[in-house]
Design brief:
Number of helices: 11
Number of domains: 1
Shape: globular
Number of strands: 0
Largest sheet: none
Oligomer: single chain
């Protein structure tokens, strides 16, 4: 098989997977795109409020890339990009409270370190962090820290190539309904945690009228609902 024929075959396979993904998951794809746009809008609000944008736009780009990878059957890559976006988003929030680390990151002398991000004593989802930026959310911190650790571990299985992921993903390019469903579930969990974390850090600095989507997505969290004018 010559190189042109080889890549034409791959393109046809990808097109078939893309069609199957769209036909079977139109609602889920639309929701992922909407949630990604919510994160982008939040990022724009942070920038407009003269806060450090840091890696938030990079994170949103990775979320969009993860959706694209899913659409062409690259399930492992979809989960890997989702994890990277998750890490960058929470890392960006951490850097916003640590100017020196942020500047070092810009210079390539600092890495985004998950263990520090998720640290229960000093991380983004710690009572210490919440107590400074949004004390109203302290009671929710432990739950979201646990959820963040669990979903990160789940996504990491694809990054590290755990054996069970090969059994699910296989070695051939084809549409896999189960992996699509798992991805959509993970995407929803990740974006909820990121939105909550952004609320911990920035909610009280932003114009309430410009973040209506928070009322929709996080109204189940009582302090956020009440702060945005909802019922007790």
């Amino acid at each position: 098989m010559d190189i042109n024929e080889y890549f034409e075959k791959l393109k046809d396979q990808s097109n078939n997977i893309s069609n199957a993904t769209l036909i079977g998951n139109e609602k889920e794809l639309a929701e992922c795109h909407y949630l990604s746009s919510c994160l982008f809008d939040f990022t724009e609000e942070i920038i407009n409020a003269n806060e450090e944008p840091c890696a938030l736009k990079n994170a949103v780009s990775q979320f969009e890339t993860s959706i694209y990878c899913l659409g062409i059957g690259l399930y492992r890559q979809a989960n890997s990009c989702l994890r990277l976006g998750f890490e960058l988003a929470l890392g960006s929030i951490q850097f916003s409270a640590n100017k020196l680390e942020y500047l070092e990151w810009q210079l390539g002398k600092q890495d985004v370190k998950w263990n520090r991000i998720i640290d229960k004593e000093n991380g983004v989802l710690s009572t210490r962090f919440s107590n400074v930026f949004n004390p109203d959310l302290i009671d929710n911190i432990t739950t979201y820290n646990t959820r963040a650790s669990l979903i990160y571990r789940k996504l990491s299985e694809y990054v590290h190539g755990n054996n069970d992921t090969w059994n699910k993903d296989g070695l051939e390019l084809s549409y896999k309904e189960e992996l699509s469903k798992t991805f959509f579930d993970s995407f929803k969990v990740v974006t909820e945690i990121v939105l909550f974390s952004l609320c911990v850090r920035y909610l009280k600095d932003l114009d309430k009228d410009n973040i209506d989507f928070i009322r929709t997505e996080l109204s189940h969290i009582e302090p956020i609902r009440i702060y945005l004018g909802g019922p007790k």
